[in-house]
């Protein structure tokens, strides 16, 4: 989940401090194009093609979005419009979830309503945009060009509640002009702790409905004080067509040199590869993972751990942090050397993610809390055996048959920050060692669980299944709104 809690302005503002505008906010997609040009100037790049092949073509397409001529607005009695606002131009959990929804709706909702998208809720990244598959970019061009009357629009604010109108930090507000004009306003959000803070509860109760992804969130939102009549479980889709192991070749390993340990003598197809994908933050449990892995394995075991990570309000010198952690933890190097750890900290295009999953033998993430767990379900869709913490969002889909649920030792209280007093899980490091050794020693069992995992993803969370759920909710909103206006 890509929250913005660490970069929010905690001083509250009156709704009247944001001026009422006459039209929808201009496209945030254009800002990404401006950013790209600025980047080229700052870096003194005379030929922007050096940033990436097809840069100019993609940039031109990005700018054309903002230059589209408005289409005819809908009149009363026509199909309504759904404006989906989310961090479409940013990496992270909210972004990937939003992309999965709009792709599913575009492919499977038919013509029951029009769909429009706009960027909201996080900073834009041209690097992320250029890494998207071309079909996703084309879809964005098309859906952003949809024009709707605000009075005939259902707005979905897909972000953390601090980004909702009026936002607590700089972002395009959602709904764009407040709560009066739209037919209905939905907040799509989630949380990784056991509760919401009072400010977020108030913002949820300002919405007409709040969609959350799991039963865990239904319970925690209700306990926190969100109106039970507004909280609805709407699971997240996973693109089982894109994350299909039959469609991808594995990425060749190793990628570079290990940051700890050395290449194993039997490096190659006989080596067992663990993969973990996460933002570099304490919540993701990277410290638990490193400790368990380095205590349980040595170079002689012929295993490797790959960390696909990126900075999250932190330094990006992950190699140094790993070495400092090992030193501070007083871990002792085995006589035959450390089991190797590799970092994949450069930007990996979204289109290459399935190949990374395909190159590994097992996925592991001892997280302290997840809203949903995007990399977990992607790994499961790729038929990988998964070891992850059996708490919070993943409890919606983890079973003993399709994964290796990691037990929780205890709950820990956050001691500082805006969520002080909230509780998160502390996964068992000892049981993590047991499970990692077990999956290495029982590869056929792991493959069997992986096949079951992919089957469950297809049956419960495929785009077709989830699109039907979302369409049903939207059409209920439309029908109820029509009845109220009669």
From TrEMBL:
Region forming the signal peptide: none
Transmembrane domains' residue ranges: 28-45
Keyword annotations of the record: Membrane, Transmembrane, Transmembrane helix
Superkingdom field: Eukaryota
A Pfam entry, by short name: Glyco_trans_1_4
Protein name (record): Glycosyl transferase family 1 domain-containing protein
């Amino acid at each position: 989940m890509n929250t913005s809690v660490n970069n929010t302005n905690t001083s509250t503002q009156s709704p009247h401090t944001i001026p009422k505008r006459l039209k929808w906010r201009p496209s945030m997609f254009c800002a990404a194009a401006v950013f790209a040009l600025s980047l080229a100037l700052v870096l003194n790049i005379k030929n922007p093609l050096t940033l990436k092949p097809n840069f100019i073509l993609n940039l031109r397409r990005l700018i054309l979005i903002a230059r589209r001529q408005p289409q005819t607005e809908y009149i009363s009695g026509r199909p309504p419009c759904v404006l989906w606002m989310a961090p479409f131009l940013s990496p992270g959990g909210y972004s990937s979830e939003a992309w999965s929804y709009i792709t599913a709706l575009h492919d499977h909702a038919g013509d029951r309503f029009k769909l429009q998208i706009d960027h909201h809720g996080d900073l834009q990244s041209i690097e992320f945009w250029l890494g998207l598959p071309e079909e996703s970019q084309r879809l964005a061009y098309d859906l952003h060009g949809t024009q709707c009357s605000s009075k005939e629009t259902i707005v979905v604010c897909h972000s953390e509640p601090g980004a909702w109108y009026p936002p607590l930090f700089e972002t395009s507000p959602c709904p764009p002009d407040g709560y009066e004009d739209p037919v209905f306003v939905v907040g799509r959000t989630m949380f990784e702790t056991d509760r919401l803070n009072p400010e977020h509860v108030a913002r949820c109760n300002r919405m007409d409905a709040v969609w959350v992804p799991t039963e865990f969130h239904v319970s925690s939102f209700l306990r926190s004080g969100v109106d039970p009549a507004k909280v609805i479980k709407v699971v997240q889709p996973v693109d089982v067509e894109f994350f299909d192991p039959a469609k991808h070749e594995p990425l060749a390993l190793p990628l570079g040199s290990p940051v700890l340990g050395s290449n194993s003598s039997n490096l190659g197809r006989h080596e067992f590869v663990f993969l973990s994908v996460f933002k570099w933050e304490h919540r993701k449990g990277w410290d638990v993972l490193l400790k368990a892995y380095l205590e349980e394995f040595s170079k002689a075991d012929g295993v490797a751990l790959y960390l696909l990570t990126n900075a999250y309000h932190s330094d990006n010198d992950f190699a140094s942090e790993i070495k400092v952690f090992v030193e501070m933890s007083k871990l002792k190097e085995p006589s035959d050397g450390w089991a190797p750890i590799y970092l994949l900290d450069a930007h990996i295009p979204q289109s290459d993610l399935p190949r990374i999953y395909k190159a590994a033998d097992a996925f592991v993430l001892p997280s302290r809390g997840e809203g949903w767990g995007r990399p977990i379900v992607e790994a499961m869709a790729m038929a990988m055996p998964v070891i992850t913490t059996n708490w919070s969002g993943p409890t919606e889909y983890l079973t003993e048959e399709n994964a290796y649920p990691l037990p929780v030792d205890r709950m820990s209280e956050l001691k500082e920050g805006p969520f002080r007093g909230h509780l998160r899980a502390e996964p068992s490091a000892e049981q993590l060692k047991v499970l990692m050794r077990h999956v290495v020693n029982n590869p056929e069992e792991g493959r069997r669980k992986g096949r079951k995992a992919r089957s469950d993803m297809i049956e419960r969370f495929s785009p077709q299944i989830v699109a039907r759920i979302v369409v049903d909710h939207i059409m209920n909103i439309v029908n109820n709104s029509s009845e109220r206006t009669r």
